[in-house]
Design brief:
141 residues
Length: 141
């Protein structure tokens, strides 16, 4: 399978960041304006298996690898590095609170990718907190 290219205008990355945070209007906008992979990735970040499967089947396993790496999946982290997806690797590791990856992103990426990383980190931290709260077991966002 060939992997789809990941290259987006700054405003699309910012829309994706807000979609990750749960903005339904921007989720719909992504889906209806040629960015179904970002729409699905926003849902995959929130642990929705159909969205994860869609990413694999439609040429975006590298996006899913970034999401899995951000959840601590060491195989996904190694895969991203092996195939030179360094931006996705460092986004994932920064989501995991790795200071070196935050430094790398600040030196090698754009401000909108930093904003996206913070958005993903916020959601992943909320999911983790819910999974550790006995009163909110299996209450995903």
């Amino acid at each position: 399978m060939s992997l789809a290219q990941l290259s987006y205008p700054s405003l699309v990355i910012l829309a994706f960041a807000k979609a990750v945070e749960g903005n339904k209007e921007l989720q719909t906008w992504l889906q209806e304006n040629g960015y179904p992979e970002l729409f699905m990735a926003a849902h995959a970040i929130r642990l929705q298996d159909p969205a994860r499967q869609w990413l694999i089947k439609n040429g975006y396993p590298h996006l899913l690898a970034m999401i899995a790496a951000a959840e601590g999946d060491e195989k996904a982290q190694k895969w991203l590095k092996q195939y030179d997806y360094m931006v996705l690797y460092h986004i994932a590791m920064a989501v995991e609170h790795e200071k070196e990856s935050w430094f790398w992103l600040r030196q090698n990426s754009s401000p909108e990718l930093i904003i996206l990383t913070k958005s993903i980190q916020m959601i992943k931290d909320q999911i983790e907190e819910n999974h550790n709260d006995v009163h909110a077991i299996h209450k995903d966002l």
